[in-house]
Design a protein that fits this description.
Blueprint lengths: L8 E4 L5 H12 L3 E6 L2 H15 L3 E5 L5 H11 L4 E4 L14 H29 L2 E6 L12 H21 L4 E8 L5 H14 L3 H9 L10 H11 L11 E4 L9
Amino acid sequence: MDLGIGGRRALVCASSKGLGRGCAEALAAAGVDLVLNARGAETLEATAEAIRARHGVAVTTVAADIATEAGQAAVLAAAGGVDILVNNAGGPPPGVWSDWGRADFQRALDANMLAPVALMTALLPGMIAQGWGRVVNITSTSVKGPIAALGLSNAARAGLTGYVAGTARQVAGHGVTINNLLPGTHDTDRIVSLDSAEVAARGVSLEEVRAARMATIPAGRYGSPEEFGAMCAFLCSVHAGFVVGQNIVLDGGALAVTI
């Protein structure tokens, strides 16, 4: 399927690896030029070079922490106006409610709610002016089914979801869509970290932890960054203009809800 976005330009945050890279690769395959961001310059540059070589698109890199105001300013300065924004940032660490204080919640909010809001605030006016734009926020299935150990993530991402619910409906009439992708368990560094924490807590092997987690997923496996990226690229396409303010779950059927 031709996504109809060849020649467009996208800012993809936290995109040197994992789900962010999956989105960047899928957009590049559709002919979209990219502005990529991540904290680690070396990995970011390697990813950019691989995407340039594979897809022949222009790729600009900005090594910065998107959760900070300075990082956002650097990324926005390099991006200028873009047609597509993919918001993404690493999730906060797991724990229990008694572990977390105000500073912990502030860090979670900065990364997983306030940074996406800041980028949307900066970039939506340009999309509205040109009458076309796409925003995809990578959140989590925890906004539909809270995960006890991820209370910081539950709170911050649910806040972003509420913001998007209203904002998406205010900009849709200008040809701009905002939607959220809710990943379940995908084979990325994030799940390696969570699985490793489970290993340490329970004193079992990584293989046992992975097998037990996969057993809770009807698809019987972890998702891949590539299939996640394909859904992101579709939401950014010309075919998704009637998809507004939605929370699309990609979890292999793990979340047992009807709606």
